[in-house]
Amino acid sequence: MREHPSGSFKNLIGVGLLLTPIILLCVHFIDLPVASFVKNRLYSNAGWSRMTSDLPDLLFVVVLVSMLVSLLVYQVRSRRGIFDRSTAFAKLVLWIAPSSYLVKTLLKMVFGRVNTRCWLQEPELYGFHFFQMREGCEGFPSGHTLVIVTLLAALWRFYPGTRPLCLAAATLLGIALVATNYHFVSDVLAGAYFGVLLEAVAFRLLIREPLQPPAGRC
After folding, report:
1. What stretch of H or E contains 111?
2. CA distances to 16, 39, 71, 146, 194 from 88, in Å
3. First-to-last CA distance in the chain?
4. DSSP class per residue in 22-61
């Protein structure tokens, strides 16, 4: 299951280098037209506007539930001396769930980018307001994308059979966040990258014990 750490990080660094100019391109040429399209086309529909105007933010609940379930699984299995794939997965989720929430909070404070809905009301605020912690300037990166992709990346690593589902879930989440004008396209792309990077770092630091082979195999 474990890939060579140096190769994995080299690949992630390469992806980051390729993704950076794409994100910058989105910031300068794509984000605003897409957000304007969503406002003018999707939000001209009264039903869509009502449905998406006040969506509940359940991200903290997702983090809390992930922590509690993984803690329970890890405690039960480790006390029984079972250090297999499921135990390692629970251990990783126990750490990356709160870590991803903290990382997204810190990154939002650092970048200080105006969020999409605030920009629609005050277009002159568009851009990044680094370390200023202004109200409405917490759009970059997308916190929902960062946290959910971090968890999906762990699922992708430990359970390869779920990879199509993970990819579909991450894609639908990104589309939904843009289509509801909660985030610009570049916010979602950056959030996804930081999520994958965080999971890779946590995996390298935390998963050290040898894994038992699945039951029924020698």
Report:
1. helix 85-111
2. 27, 44, 11, 21, 22
3. 16
4. HHHHIIIIIHHHHHHHIIIIITTSHHHHHHHTT----HHH
Place of tokens 């910058």: 24
CA 181 to chain centre: 17
In the chain, domain spans = 5-46+108-206
pLDDT in tens, 174-216: 999 999 999 999 999 999 999 999 999 999 999 865 544 444 4
Low-confidence ranges of the chain (pLDDT < 50): 1-4, 211-218
Which residues touch 107 (CB under 8 Å, ≥6 apart)? Answer: 140, 141, 146, 194
| pLDDT confidence of residue 208 | 67
pTM (global) more than 0.85: yes
The whole-angstrom separation of Cα 103 and Cα 84 is 28
Please enumerate in sequence order all residues whose Cβ is within 8 A of that of 53, keeping only pairs 6 or more positions apart, or say none.
none
Residue where the block lists tokens 């080299």: 10
The amino acid that residue 215 corresponds to is A
Residue 106, token pair as written in the block: 């810190």
